[in-house]
Amino acid sequence: MSDADVLLRAEGVGKRFGGFVALQGVDITLRAGERLGLIGPNGSGKSTFVNCISGDFAQHDGRVTLGGAALNGLKPHRRARLGLARTFQLPQPFNSLSVLENVRVPLLFSGQSGSATARAMHCLEQVELAAKAEKLPRELTQVEQRRLELARAIALDPQLLIADEAMAGLSHAEIDQILLLLRRLNAAGTAVIMIEHIMRAVTEFAERLVVFVAGRKIADGEPRAVLSMPEVEGAYLGK
Ligand code: ADP
Ligand code: MG
């Protein structure tokens, strides 16, 4: 991959909590517009990796660049301005703010010019939540809360969206809704890292698969080839 095609480059990313090594020596390079699935057993370091990339963990090993810009040391909102968006495994809305305000906040933080309200409404339309704009997050169903989490992430028109288990607990039809949303976003040019236990969703969506086991990357490649590797079947699918 030539440097010009590289969107995200993570080199030797690692994280320890006290004496516990949660993530070690992870190298991942992502092209602009690529759709990557990231899978692995619970506790294998997937969310830890996201937190290192997003800046939610300030301290970690390794180097991360986005579009050639060094991310190390930057706060999450600075990374968001550079085109990085993530969703949280557990939606983290501002509970006392309306659905619309929840989408406006990241826009205000990003220092975007123009009307944050109009842009926020546009995002809510994309996730089919416009009719609920004045509701509070707790008045939303589970899938609506996940769509709100996505709306907040896509408000900044990111170059890279990392969706951390955005489909957990959803029905088949609800999963399809989220998949459609991610596909539309990707078709418009956003690269997506999908972290997901729902294998149907991952294999339908991803053009490349990375597997983590016990804090290390054990596979990286074409999905069918990766899923048929004995060490992947043993560590993940056969568990
Ligand atoms: P995954 O997302 O793959 O399920 P995580 O990245 O959340 O896994 O966790 C990887 C490991 O790191 C787990 O053993 C988890 O308990 C540990 N861990 C994650 N975050 C913290 C933290 N803030 N403090 C201590 N340990 C943590
Ligand atoms: Mg996780």
TrEMBL record:
- Classification via PROSITE patterns: ABC_TRANSPORTER_2
For this protein, the record's InterPro entries field holds: AAA+_ATPase, ABC_AA/LPS_Transport, ABC_transporter-like_ATP-bd, P-loop_NTPase
Domain called ABC transporter: residue spans: 8-239
> In the record, what terms sit under GO molecular function?
ATP binding; ATP hydrolysis activity
Keywords, alphabetical: ATP-binding, Nucleotide-binding, Transport
UniProt keyword ATP-binding, yes or no: yes
Pfam families (alphabetical): ABC_tran
Q: Which GO terms describe its cellular component?
A: plasma membrane
What is the protein named?
A: ABC transporter ATP-binding protein
Source organism per entry reads Siccirubricoccus deserti
